[in-house]
Amino acid sequence: MFDILNDFTTASVAATSCTTCPSTCNDFSMENLSLVRATLLEEHTDLGGEVYALGFAHSSRDSERHDLQERLFEAVVVKKSGSDDSDIAIASANLQEMLTSESLLYIEDDNENAYAHERGLYISGLKDSSKSEYKNGDGTLVITAKNDASGYTIKVTLKKAAAEKSVKA
Fold this sequence. Notes:
The chain has 169 residues and is mostly beta strands.
Protein backbone atom coordinates (compact mmCIF):
# COMPACT_ATOMS: atom_id res chain seq x y z
CA MET A 1 0.00 0.00 0.00
CA PHE A 2 1.30 3.47 -0.70
CA ASP A 3 3.09 4.91 2.28
CA ILE A 4 0.71 7.80 3.02
CA LEU A 5 -2.06 5.34 3.99
CA ASN A 6 0.11 3.34 6.39
CA ASP A 7 -1.07 3.39 10.00
CA PHE A 8 -4.44 5.06 9.32
CA THR A 9 -6.95 3.15 11.43
CA THR A 10 -10.06 5.36 11.66
CA ALA A 11 -12.10 7.49 9.31
CA SER A 12 -14.73 10.16 9.64
CA VAL A 13 -16.76 11.15 6.61
CA ALA A 14 -19.33 13.82 5.82
CA ALA A 15 -21.35 14.23 2.64
CA THR A 16 -22.95 17.67 2.54
CA SER A 17 -26.40 18.14 1.16
CA CYS A 18 -27.45 19.26 -2.24
CA THR A 19 -30.73 21.07 -2.87
CA THR A 20 -32.18 18.60 -5.39
CA CYS A 21 -31.41 15.39 -3.46
CA PRO A 22 -33.79 13.42 -1.22
CA SER A 23 -33.77 14.67 2.37
CA THR A 24 -32.83 11.21 3.69
CA CYS A 25 -29.40 11.59 2.05
CA ASN A 26 -28.74 15.14 3.21
CA ASP A 27 -25.99 15.75 5.71
CA PHE A 28 -24.88 12.13 5.84
CA SER A 29 -21.98 11.91 8.29
CA MET A 30 -20.19 9.21 10.26
CA GLU A 31 -17.36 9.41 12.78
CA ASN A 32 -14.72 7.09 14.22
CA LEU A 33 -15.16 4.20 11.82
CA SER A 34 -12.49 1.48 12.10
CA LEU A 35 -10.49 0.28 9.11
CA VAL A 36 -11.57 -3.25 8.20
CA ARG A 37 -9.86 -3.71 4.82
CA ALA A 38 -7.59 -2.16 2.22
CA THR A 39 -7.46 -3.93 -1.13
CA LEU A 40 -5.36 -3.16 -4.21
CA LEU A 41 -7.60 -2.76 -7.27
CA GLU A 42 -5.48 -3.70 -10.25
CA GLU A 43 -8.47 -3.63 -12.61
CA HIS A 44 -8.89 0.15 -12.25
CA THR A 45 -5.75 1.20 -14.12
CA ASP A 46 -7.87 3.75 -16.03
CA LEU A 47 -7.90 5.97 -12.91
CA GLY A 48 -4.30 6.99 -13.54
CA GLY A 49 -2.44 5.74 -10.51
CA GLU A 50 -2.21 3.16 -7.76
CA VAL A 51 -5.80 2.35 -6.72
CA TYR A 52 -7.10 0.91 -3.43
CA ALA A 53 -10.53 0.11 -2.01
CA LEU A 54 -10.75 1.05 1.66
CA GLY A 55 -13.48 -0.24 3.96
CA PHE A 56 -14.38 1.21 7.36
CA ALA A 57 -17.12 0.08 9.76
CA HIS A 58 -18.62 0.64 13.20
CA SER A 59 -21.32 -1.27 15.08
CA SER A 60 -22.98 -0.21 18.29
CA ARG A 61 -25.78 -1.43 20.50
CA ASP A 62 -28.21 0.77 22.42
CA SER A 63 -29.30 -1.30 25.42
CA GLU A 64 -32.06 1.16 26.39
CA ARG A 65 -33.74 1.11 22.99
CA HIS A 66 -32.74 -2.50 22.26
CA ASP A 67 -31.42 -1.79 18.81
CA LEU A 68 -28.26 -2.23 16.77
CA GLN A 69 -26.66 0.39 14.56
CA GLU A 70 -24.18 -0.42 11.81
CA ARG A 71 -22.31 2.16 9.79
CA LEU A 72 -20.18 1.33 6.76
CA PHE A 73 -17.99 3.53 4.58
CA GLU A 74 -16.19 2.31 1.47
CA ALA A 75 -13.99 4.46 -0.73
CA VAL A 76 -11.88 4.00 -3.83
CA VAL A 77 -8.72 6.08 -3.46
CA VAL A 78 -5.97 6.82 -5.99
CA LYS A 79 -2.38 7.90 -5.55
CA LYS A 80 -2.02 10.13 -8.58
CA SER A 81 0.76 9.07 -11.00
CA GLY A 82 3.97 11.05 -10.71
CA SER A 83 2.98 12.66 -7.41
CA ASP A 84 4.32 12.34 -3.90
CA ASP A 85 2.64 10.10 -1.35
CA SER A 86 0.50 12.90 0.07
CA ASP A 87 -1.41 13.46 -3.20
CA ILE A 88 -4.33 11.08 -2.67
CA ALA A 89 -7.61 11.43 -4.57
CA ILE A 90 -10.95 9.86 -3.76
CA ALA A 91 -12.67 8.42 -6.85
CA SER A 92 -15.91 7.21 -5.25
CA ALA A 93 -17.57 6.83 -1.87
CA ASN A 94 -20.29 4.55 -0.57
CA LEU A 95 -21.98 5.25 2.80
CA GLN A 96 -24.42 2.81 4.43
CA GLU A 97 -26.27 3.13 7.73
CA MET A 98 -28.55 0.46 9.21
CA LEU A 99 -30.63 0.54 12.39
CA THR A 100 -32.29 -2.72 13.44
CA SER A 101 -34.32 -3.61 16.52
CA GLU A 102 -32.96 -6.58 18.41
CA SER A 103 -36.38 -8.25 18.31
CA LEU A 104 -36.17 -8.39 14.52
CA LEU A 105 -33.09 -10.60 14.82
CA TYR A 106 -34.99 -13.37 16.58
CA ILE A 107 -37.90 -15.44 15.32
CA GLU A 108 -40.85 -14.81 17.60
CA ASP A 109 -44.60 -15.21 17.31
CA ASP A 110 -45.28 -11.87 18.97
CA ASN A 111 -42.83 -9.50 17.27
CA GLU A 112 -44.80 -6.24 17.35
CA ASN A 113 -41.85 -3.98 18.14
CA ALA A 114 -39.66 -5.03 15.24
CA TYR A 115 -38.27 -2.37 12.93
CA ALA A 116 -35.37 -1.75 10.58
CA HIS A 117 -34.18 1.39 8.83
CA GLU A 118 -31.50 1.64 6.21
CA ARG A 119 -30.12 4.43 4.09
CA GLY A 120 -27.26 4.57 1.65
CA LEU A 121 -25.44 7.05 -0.52
CA TYR A 122 -23.08 6.33 -3.41
CA ILE A 123 -21.10 9.16 -5.00
CA SER A 124 -18.74 8.70 -7.94
CA GLY A 125 -17.01 11.12 -10.28
CA LEU A 126 -14.94 12.62 -7.48
CA LYS A 127 -11.35 12.08 -8.66
CA ASP A 128 -10.90 15.22 -10.79
CA SER A 129 -12.05 17.61 -8.04
CA SER A 130 -10.34 15.74 -5.21
CA LYS A 131 -7.85 17.57 -3.00
CA SER A 132 -5.85 16.11 -0.13
CA GLU A 133 -4.01 17.69 2.76
CA TYR A 134 -1.76 15.78 5.12
CA LYS A 135 -1.47 17.38 8.55
CA ASN A 136 1.80 16.01 9.89
CA GLY A 137 1.32 17.62 13.30
CA ASP A 138 -1.77 15.65 14.25
CA GLY A 139 -1.36 12.72 11.84
CA THR A 140 -4.53 13.26 9.83
CA LEU A 141 -5.17 13.14 6.11
CA VAL A 142 -8.14 15.19 4.90
CA ILE A 143 -9.52 14.49 1.41
CA THR A 144 -12.29 16.66 -0.05
CA ALA A 145 -14.05 16.31 -3.38
CA LYS A 146 -17.23 17.41 -5.12
CA ASN A 147 -19.44 15.71 -7.68
CA ASP A 148 -20.52 18.59 -9.92
CA ALA A 149 -23.48 16.73 -11.42
CA SER A 150 -25.19 16.05 -8.08
CA GLY A 151 -23.75 18.88 -6.03
CA TYR A 152 -22.57 16.55 -3.26
CA THR A 153 -19.35 17.46 -1.49
CA ILE A 154 -17.57 14.79 0.51
CA LYS A 155 -14.93 15.27 3.18
CA VAL A 156 -12.99 12.28 4.50
CA THR A 157 -10.68 12.56 7.50
CA LEU A 158 -8.32 9.64 8.08
CA LYS A 159 -6.64 9.40 11.48
CA LYS A 160 -3.65 7.40 12.60
CA ALA A 161 -3.81 5.16 15.64
CA ALA A 162 -3.05 6.97 18.86
CA ALA A 163 0.27 5.98 20.34
CA GLU A 164 -0.09 3.88 23.45
CA LYS A 165 1.17 5.55 26.59
CA SER A 166 3.27 3.49 28.93
CA VAL A 167 2.14 3.39 32.54
CA LYS A 168 4.84 3.83 35.18
CA ALA A 169 4.46 1.83 38.36
